[in-house]
């Protein structure tokens, strides 16, 4: 999914020195963003956040629905990241400039690696209830110029315990390994809870983690967590305990703190102002990013760059 804001703000993030020391806990409140104009679809964006911009390499989290909606995101560019699309309800059709066309349904994973440059569109075949999350993963410098690619995984590894099902979307969790291609040590998983179900999740002390309630309500390591905020856990833990106060679905993210500083502006992840400026110019000229076939409409124009130069900064404000 694109960042459709017409006045996107600079987001500079990364740098291990700025990650939380020890087993910190922070409740990060998201902000509402309307995609595609005043009548567009509303999402809650918890990353990047005013106080913390990344969890591992996860640098963007939009949660939308459940509500009747018609998604229509015109062709738009990406660089230096992976997009991770995960649905709980509805269907979304993905098309991209390397020729991929894939309908994603609940329980399946669409993973697009932008690498040096790609463009894509997303639209729901009809107006229906949509509920899902769109996530971005920042690519480290060694891999951020790889050739673009797209992968669809209709079936993912899952662990079923009394009252809880854990589906590993990306990375590895407690011995379960997703087939999704990743470039940094990380994990992404969905946990589905029955009422009052409880689980202890083994975690890596060198990882930081984030938890978002997609529906219902849980206690996460003793913190009541309802739909909306992202609860951040700093490194230094060996397990996390989750207890559902009612039937719930939860998104669980984690990863090794991202060592590099980077700049995220509009739909680009780069390392400085000049690079972002070049990406924007290439998209405006229609070069490098290819053409999305099959979408009935014009590509999304790039917004104007801010008046002040974009600068890489640390992962925390």
Overview features:
317 residues, mainly beta, Jelly Rolls, 8-stranded antiparallel beta sheet, globular, RmlC_Cupin_sf, Pirin_C_dom, RmlC-like_jellyroll, Pirin family protein
Please state the second-level CATH architecture. Answer: Sandwich
**Largest sheet data:** 8 strands, antiparallel
Order of helices and strands: EEEEEEEEEEEEEEEEEEEEEEEEEEH
CA radius of gyration is: 18 Å
Name the beta content range.
over 45%
Structural class: mainly beta
| Overall strand count | 26
Q: Which range best describes the helical content: under 10%, 10-25%, 25-40%, 40-55%, 55-70% or over 70%? A: under 10%
CATH topology: Jelly Rolls
Count every helix, treating DSSP H or I runs of 4 or more residues as helices: 1
Q: In CATH's first tier, which class applies?
A: Mainly Beta
Average pLDDT level: 92
Shape: globular
Tally the structural domains. Answer: 1
Distance between the terminal alpha carbons, to the nearest Å? Answer: 25 Å
User: So, the CATH homologous superfamily?
Assistant: Jelly Rolls
Low-pLDDT residue spans = 16-21
Topology:
Elements: E1 11-14, E2 25-28, E3 31-35, E4 41-47, E5 58-69, E6 72-78, E7 81-89, E8 92-96, E9 101-104, E10 109-113, E11 118-123, E12 128-138, E13 149-153, E14 158-161, E15 164-173, E16 176-177, E17 186-193, E18 198-202, E19 208-215, E20 217-220, E21 223-226, E22 230-233, E23 239-244, E24 248-255, E25 261-265, E26 268-270, H1 273-285
Antiparallel strand pairs: 1-25, 2-22, 3-4, 4-5, 5-12, 6-11, 7-10, 7-12, 8-9, 8-11, 10-13, 14-15, 15-16, 15-17, 17-24, 18-23, 19-22, 19-24, 20-21, 20-23, 25-26
């Amino acid at each position: 999914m694109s960042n459709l804001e017409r006045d996107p703000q600079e987001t500079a993030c990364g740098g291990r020195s700025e990650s939380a020391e020890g087993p910190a806990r922070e409740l990060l409140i998201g902000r509402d963003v309307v995609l595609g104009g005043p009548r567009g679809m509303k999402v809650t964006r918890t990353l990047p956040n005013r106080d913390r911009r990344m969890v591992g390499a996860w640098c963007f989290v939009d949660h939308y629905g459940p509500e009747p909606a018609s998604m229509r995101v015109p062709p738009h560019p990406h660089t230096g990241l992976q997009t991770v699309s995960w649905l709980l309800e509805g269907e979304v059709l993905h098309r991209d400039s390397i020729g991929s066309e894939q309908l994603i349904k609940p329980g399946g994973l669409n993973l697009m690696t932008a690498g040096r440059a790609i463009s894509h569109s997303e639209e729901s075949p009809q107006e229906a209830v949509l509920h899902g999350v769109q996530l971005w993963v920042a690519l480290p410098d060694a891999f951020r110029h790889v050739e673009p690619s797209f992968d669809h995984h209709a079936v993912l590894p899952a662990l079923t315990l009394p009252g809880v099902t854990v589906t590993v979307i990306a990375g590895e969790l407690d011995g379960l390994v997703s087939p999704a291609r990743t470039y940094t040590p990380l994990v992404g998983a969905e946990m589905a809870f029955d009422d009052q179900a409880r689980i202890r999740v083994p975690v890596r002390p060198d990882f930081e983690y984030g938890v978002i309630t997609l529906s219902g309500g849980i206690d996460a390591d003793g913190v009541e967590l309802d739909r909306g905020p992202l609860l951040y856990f700093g490194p230094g833990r060996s397990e996390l305990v989750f207890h559902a106060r009612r039937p719930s679905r939860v998104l669980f993210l984690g990863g090794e703190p991202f060592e590099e500083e980077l700049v995220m502006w509009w739909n680009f992840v780069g390392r400085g102002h000049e690079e972002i400026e070049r990406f924007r110019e290439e998209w405006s000229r229609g070069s490098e990013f290819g053409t999305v076939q099959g979408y009935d409409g014009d590509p999304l124009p790039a917004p104007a760059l801010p008046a002040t130069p974009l600068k890489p900064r640390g992962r925390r404000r």
